Amino acid sequence: MVTQESCTQKRRVGPYCRAISRGAIGEINGRSPEGKFLRRCEAELVEHVGGQPTFAQALIIRRATRAMLQLEKLDSKLAIGNWTDHDARTYGGLSNTLRLCLRELGLRPPASKPKSPLADHFSRPPKRSAAP
Hints:
132 residues, mainly alpha, 5 helices
């Protein structure tokens, strides 16, 4: 028997939720804020790789979007002040996973800026004049 109370309860998605581990969308409702976040991130990464990702790229994109969602949830937990040592270790691991996924998808570090003439001048060793 379905009661009104059981129909009105919403499942909350937390940083360690099983729904996150079941695919890019998994059991997450696509109309929920989490589902919209996953879809937006997935669409942007698909666009980044040219619109037609290979199978391997699609796997990496799904992994990256799940990591981004978990990181967002952990950011919220940090903002509330309910942070544990386990959260800190998980955050570090997820950040590294996301960094590696994005690197595999072709995200490259920005090109280094050219030095200014003043910085170039001070980086050179001083010139010594010949003794008379």
